[in-house]
Description:
Helix content is 25%, strand content 37%. By secondary structure, the chain is α+β, with helices and mostly antiparallel strands.
Amino acid sequence: MPIYIVEMTLALCMIKCDYQSVKNTLQSIKRVKGVIESHETTGPYDAVLKVKAESEAELRSIVRNLGMISGVFAILTAIVYNVK
């Protein structure tokens, strides 16, 4: 099993949200500490976020905060390894 040395935790979060309020929801998302990029998208998810955290525990906290935003229905999170 490979060993990964990660200095920070970087993740991509795909967000499903209320289509009628995507713009307002994204404005709220952008204010969450750790969200460094947000993009409205087409397809099964309405937005993709780039999230940076000091640890996986902090990432879990950020994702919990995102889930509490009005209009957010679902979050799919993928941790990025081999960050250069």
